[in-house]
Amino acid sequence: MENVTVSVIVPVHNGAATIGQAVESALVQKVPLEIIVVDDGSTDDLEGALARYANLPQLRCLHNERNLGVAASRNRGVEAARGEYIAFLDADDWWEPRKLAAQLQVMRRRNVVLSCTGRELMRADGSSTGRFIPVREKITYRSLLYHNCINCSSVLIRADVAREFPMEHDEAHEDYIMWLHILKKYGEAAGLPHSYLKYRMAANSKSGSKLHSAGMTYRVYRYMGYGPLASLFFFASYALHGVWKYAVARRRSRGKG
Fold first, then answer.
1. Which residues in 68-98 are b (16+ Cβ under 10 Å) and which e?
2. Which of 95, 157, 182, 240 could form a disulfide with 25 if both were Cys (CB 3.0 to 4.6 A apart)?
3. Cα angle vertex 183, ends 93, 138, to 5°?
4. What pLDDT, in 10s, does the model give residues 167-191?
5. What are the residue ranges of helices labelled H in the chain?
6. What gap in Å lies between CA 64 and CA 187, rounded to an integer?
């Protein structure tokens, strides 16, 4: 394909049941794009789920010879991408139709290398919880240390920057580390408060266990070069913001009646 503006990277491991919705939500975006599905050693009928797209020039599938993990799978997709920008989309999430166009407009106007959006929290069956989590319009390195407000499936990033800071440390929050490195060098990211992302909450996700996720978050600060005390300080702020975030989302849900 020529004139690809956005390369959509979709890592998947046994996501045959949900990947169709993710792919369809990318195909209806109002920008020239390609979709790169990275099959990370799936053992379900992923091939069958993608069969309907076999003749679409916008979609191609890369197959890992063994399970490499989500960080390495995303990195492989980024290296294969032809677009000027990279969008990450997990196989169990999906987007509203104007997401990428809205992000491109804001990024070009504000001259930033990364943007993200708000999200609506969905149940495992795809139905809405009625809860929404917005983001601030301006996100800095310092503010991100206290709270990771950037959800990976909402991100649009310049491709050269994604290659400059590939995801690493799969045993931690590899995406959080990436965002911190990028903002430390390039300054602010743009946030679009609207819930363009539909985020499926699954108990068996990588960070589904709160205790396990807490350990992953602490390791992020250690990988960023902070000592034990500073890491504990940032982690405490992260935890408080997390409680506040979901409490606010619940209140907004009740307010919508």
1. bbbbbbbbbbbeebebebbbbbbbbbbbbee
2. 95
3. 75
4. 987 777 899 999 999 999 999 999 9
5. 19-27, 46-50, 70-80, 99-110, 141-146, 159-164, 174-186, 210-223, 228-255
6. 34
**102 is written with which tokens?**
């809205």
Write the burial class of residue 227 (CB in 10 Å: 0-12 exposed, 13-18 middle, 19+ buried). exposed
CB distance 200 to 153 below 8 Å: no
Phi, psi (deg, nearest 5) at residue 25: -70, -25
Residues forming a β-bridge with 94:
198
Q: Are strands 85-88 and 6-12 parallel, antiparallel or unpaired?
A: parallel
Question: Three-state SS for 14?
Answer: coil
Burial (CB < 10 A; 0-12, 13-18, 19+), residue 14, is: middle
- At residue 112, the 3 state secondary structure works out as coil
CB-based contact 155:182 (threshold 8 Å) = no
pLDDT in tens, 118-169: 999 999 999 999 999 999 999 999 999 988 999 999 999 999 999 999 998 7
Residue 15 identity: G
Supply the pTM of this predicted model.
0.88
